[in-house]
Amino acid sequence: MVDTLEHPVDAFDDHGPGAEHGPDEHHGPTGILKWITTTDHKVIGLSYTVTAVIMLVIGGAFAEIIRAQLATPSGTLVSLAQYNELFTMHGSVMIYLFAGPFAFGALANIIVPIQIGAPDMAYPRLNALSYWLYLTGAITMLSGFFTAGGAANFGWVAYAPLSNSLNTPGAGADLWIGGLLLTGFSAIFTGVNLVATIFYLRAPGMTMFRMPIFTWNMLVTAILILLAFPVLTAGLIMLYADRHFGTHIFSVAGGGVPVLWQHIFWFWGHPEVYILALPFFGMVTEILAVFSRKPVFGYKGMVFATLSIAALSLGVWAHHMFTTGVVLLPFFSIMSLLIAVPTGIKIFNWIGTMWRGEVWFSAAMLMAIGFVVTFLIGGLTGIYLASPPLDFFTHDTYFVVAHFHSVVMALVLAGMAGLYYWGPKFTGYLLNERIGKIQFWFLFIGTQVFTLPLYLLGLRGMPRRMAVYPHDPQWKFLNDLSSLGAVLIGVSTILFVVNVVVSWKKHPAGDNPWDGQTLEWFTTSPPPHHNFYRLPVIRSERPTWDYNHPEHHAIAHAPAEVKR
Amino acid sequence: MESPALPPQGASTRSRRWRRVRRAAVLPLAALALSGCTVPTFGASQGVTTSSRSVFHLWQGFSIGAAIIGTLVVALILWVPLRYRRHGDAIPKQSQYHIPLELTYTIVPILIVFGLFAATMVVENKEVANPKTSVTIDVNAFQWGWKFSYPGYSAVVIGQTTQDPTMMMPVNTNVHINLTSTDVVHGFYVKAFNFSRYALPGVRNQFTLRAVNTGDFFGQCTQLCGLYHSLMFFNVKVVSMTKYQAWLASFNNPASASTASAANTAQRQQTSSVVPSKPYASNGAN
Amino acid sequence: MKVEAKILLALGLFFGVMGVVYWFWSREATGSVMMFAGMLLGFLPGGYYYWWSRRMKARPEDDPNATQAQGAGVVGAFPGTSIWPFTLGMGSFFTVLALVFGIWLLVPGLGLVVWALFGGVAESRRGGKV
């Protein structure tokens, strides 16, 4: 049935007068010069991965300090000013420097070209530039801590007019803006690169509706990046102009409108939530399918759900602004509620993927299931917040904090699942499964112990971003519980680092350790310089599976155009 | 879930569809109607205003839905992988599509969403309505305190971090509030009202509160507004109309008026160089 | 190519419709402008792809029955290594630092940026090698 043609190696070779080396005898600079001059998407992706995990550790350390401060009502670990810097930088590091770059810089960079059978990203040098902008942006933003006034301290949303030069003077805020400009351009370039790669570099037979779900999600993420990030960049330039060039775009005194910042910020900020989430949805989809030994259930429904999440996500920005009193409540309420529909489709499709499968509880699979549970909690509480009266009730209290920490901790679970699943592909070595499972339980239980008390805390009326709080025994108990959860999460992060060290170059993975279904499992681990020595014939969205199990094709219950 | 027969044309289809939409909208509302002491609070409380109560009932309705759906889905997520865990090297049936099932879990959530939206709109319209009233309070937020003034009266209350001000308001009366900010964005939040609203510079936010109980309640700023954000509290005192009138009248007494204005100036001067003296804030800003 | 074009056109159409609904419902300018900008961002590349998709033969990656041999040949020039992205990145770094620490940093910043642009273009002309 499936005939494999040896792919002519030179088809994926370097072309041009100066590029004489083939994929297996790749000579180039070594050591630090290799790292600086590389344009190989896998090396860049690995740099992204390492940098993003370091950012996760830094942001996590900030979180641990915050939770330690809040363990007592009148915590004296940090001062009020330091506390403002800490939660600002915690949010900024986690959102701008960890979650996004980890998703679309690290894993997408490594996996997407391989999944579609491409030799590299469409613009390898632009890809390298993205990484340098990301790294320098991270350094810029974090260097605020070493300036006299400290780091930025107006929250990661930088609401005007608190972020103007009158209320927040000092270099820390400018470094924050500068760092965001750099990482913003980094994200835009990655977005361009991903779209071009997916549109132009697919292998023969890899039609759009045969792309793995992860690649589909990355395509949609990239389109969202291109729609949203320029808005943020423009907003940051306006903010900088307000701070230093004497414009009055966001200040009432000069005839400006402070709410304009919130509109601009959230027009980027809400799609950003999905820019963070969609890649992780894609990872989980792949992992659930592989470890259930089944195709993704409702593949096309999944694709359309992703597309409609993306479309709706640009029409809901003002649900962050319900309590401003100056936005159209019904429009944003119904649009936000509607996002629950495609998200629900995804959750049911995930369950359908496992249904009647042969579920293998590997560390990656456990984390993926943990993701679905945690994300469900975050998603259901999100529905409350889409209803303006309930948002008036809970806005800016710990309920909101708990909601998005459920979501982002779910993404951390998914990201860890992705590392356990794809790590062997790009390092060539398996991570220790037993430590991985212990890490999962610490992370999963820690996440619930950390977030669930915060919901109650919010309902008991504790606002977010308070360094000290009134002596209320209930508040203190719930905060203590949450801090305990934060400790468990911290332990899980340490376990991950231990796992990387312990299993360093121990257990060679082989080409296809998980009986994977998509093209990345067809090539070697780690893949050669330009990814493939040969490619299988592509007749479905699971070419590797079709090659290994030619008699087990996907089947539909109803007569649908499955095998197109 | 749909009958396989072709839908009849025209009005009957539409009316059937409408009936379905209405039924979906009625379900959570029915849940609201049933609420009372038998329905769990799901962590929230009734509050002391008319709108805080309807918000509370909406909260219960949403929570009942979330609890049912959440329990079902979590049970499925946990049961499915355990039930179908790997036993050998067998390859399961490679089923990928089940169109009727997929349509079901697309259409049912859409109906639920429109039901939730209908319930939301009912409560929201009540909450954002501004009925006629004779009692108005101007609330002004600043870094880091509150100023409550009563248009038409000389009553003004100012306080910041070192000394929480108190907002007096009468019970069982619509109280119209004009909320403004002099500097950055603040959040006016009273837990017992189940309500918050931003104080935005350059904008006058208006809303109406109607308290149904007397008592002392706790309010604070919820939107990050700078260094002493965690100390920007205020109190709300809901009293009977006669007590409220008496309180207002006390400001017309020249002696107390002058003390009030003196306090006013003192406070104003203090805002620029405020050092909080609350025991739990002794670490200050260093 | 057709599917790619249709996705972008559909997104553009969605934002267009939403933009109209939003503008006439809310009369709020910021969001309406951003929605219409989103519409253009869908229509411009989508229209371009659609225009091309009607004028070109289906590529091997659009052909469900393609064999790998159909993809043989030159895919493109992929430089093995290049120093210019790093140079450009450092130039941008200094340029952004000039926003904070003083205008003098623009000298190394823009210098590196211009140098990297020339270097990168020259590298492309020579076919991926400097």
Q: Compute the gyration radius of chain A: what is it?
A: 24 Å
**Can you tell me the CATH class of chain A?**
Mainly Alpha
Shape of chain B: elongated
For the largest beta-sheet of chain A, the strand count, sense and barrel status come to:
2 strands, antiparallel
Number of separate structural domains of chain A: 1
Instruction: Tell me the CATH superfamily of chain A.
Output: Cytochrome c oxidase-like, subunit I domain
Would you identify the regions of chain B where 5 or more consecutive residues have pLDDT less than 50? 1-14, 261-286
Q: What pattern of helices and strands is seen along the backbone of chain A?
A: HHHHHHHHHHHHEHHEHE
Task: Tell me what you see in this structure.
The complex is a heterotrimer of chains A (564), B (286) and C (130). Chain A is mainly alpha-helical and 564 residues long. Chain A has helices spanning 31-37, 41-70, 80-115, 124-142, 171-200, 213-244, 258-292, 299-313, 329-354, 363-385, 388-394, 398-427, 433-459, 473-502, 543-548, and strands at residues 429-430, 507-508, 555-556. Chain A has one domain: Up-down Bundle (Cytochrome C Oxidase, Chain A). In chain A, 63% of the residues lie in helices and 1% in strands. In chain A, helix 3 (80-115) runs parallel beside helix 5, helix 3 crosses helix 7 (258-292) and helix 10 (363-385) packs parallel to helix 13 (433-459). The longest helix of chain A has 36 residues, at 80-115. With 286 residues, chain B is α+β, with helices and mostly antiparallel strands. Chain B has 2 domains: 11-85 and 96-128, no CATH class; 135-272, Cupredoxins -  blue copper proteins (Immunoglobulin-like). Chain B is 41% helix and 22% strand. Chain B contains 5 helices and 11 strands, in the order ααβαββββββββββαα. The radius of gyration of chain B is 27 Å and the shape is elongated. Chain B starts with 10 loop residues before the first helix and ends in a 14-residue tail after the last helix. Residues 1-14 and 261-286 of chain B have low confidence and may be disordered. Chain C has 130 residues and is mainly alpha-helical. Chain C folds into 2 domains: 2-61; 84-125. Chain C starts with a helix and ends in a 5-residue tail after the last helix. In chain C, 38% of the residues are buried. At the A-B interface, helix 3, helix 7, helix 8, helix 9 and helix 10 of A face helix 2, strand 1, helix 3, strand 8 and strand 9 of B.
